[in-house]
Design a protein that fits this description.
- By secondary structure, this protein is of the alpha+beta class.
- It contains one helix and nine strands.
- The chain has a five-stranded antiparallel β-sheet with strand order 1-2-3-4-5, covered by helices on one side. A four-stranded antiparallel β-sheet has the order 7-6-8-9, with helices on one face.
- The radius of gyration is 32 Å and the shape is elongated.
- The N and C termini lie far apart (111 Å).
């Protein structure tokens, strides 16, 4: 009599399938966590870069203005012109001591085609935690004229100014004189304290070392 040998078909047991599924799930979870971490890290880095670019753009705008400060007083809302070249605070720009205003040269107006001066009155103020640049269409603002506002830096808690006169920094502005430099100190929510010094033309004084 011939015996017929039966071979069992190869396959996976239920336990083996379950173990495989569990391993695959763990690998997938680990891969997803890693990928999610990379995406979050990239988003944080992008926000930080945008924030730093925001600050850098503001510094460039402020530097451009300060480098062209004019030896010229300002007429605020139709009042008599002042002999001072800088203003630390007044109702026309701010209700507190968080403002600085002056007149600058170099407002582009080729051939004087636009009915305005090539000089510009500008101001910087802190309003609702936002550093703003303000300017008027005319170098001497008139009563009722509203300033054009350009937001520069968000999340600013405080702003203060210092002025370099006669080899020292001081908080007060001297009458009818420009300092050799202006220091701006910003206290921000996320970047801490930011300080920047800007050189100005001065007031016919010999060059001095700006320290501190």
């Amino acid at each position: 009599m011939r015996y017929i040998q039966h071979h069992k078909s190869a396959g996976f047991t239920l336990l083996e399938v379950l173990v495989s599924v569990a391993i695959f799930a763990l690998i997938s979870l680990a891969s997803f966590s890693l990928f999610d971490g990379v995406l979050k890290s990239e988003a944080v880095s992008r926000k930080q870069m945008e924030r730093l670019n925001e600050v850098q753009r503001a510094w460039m705008i402020i530097e451009r203005d300060i480098l062209q400060i004019a030896h010229r007083g300002m007429r605020i809302e139709g009042e008599a012109p002042s002999e001072n070249f800088l203003f630390a605070s007044f109702d026309g720009y701010s209700s507190n001591n968080n403002a600085l205003a002056f007149t600058r040269y170099g407002w582009t107006n080729p051939g004087l085609l636009i009915p305005r001066s090539d000089m510009q009155s500008v101001a910087y103020r802190l309003e609702e935690k936002q550093l703003q640049r303000l300017h008027f269409n005319f170098v001497d603002s008139v009563v009722g004229e509203e300033a054009k506002i350009r937001p520069l830096i968000e999340k600013v808690e405080r702003i203060s100014f210092e002025f370099f006169y006669q080899k020292k920094w001081q908080k007060e502005i001297e009458d009818a004189r420009l300092p050799l430099a202006i220091k701006i100190i910003l206290e921000t929510e996320d970047l801490g304290i930011l300080t920047r010094k800007f050189l100005v033309a001065g007031d016919n004084q010999q060059a001095e070392a700006v320290g501190g």
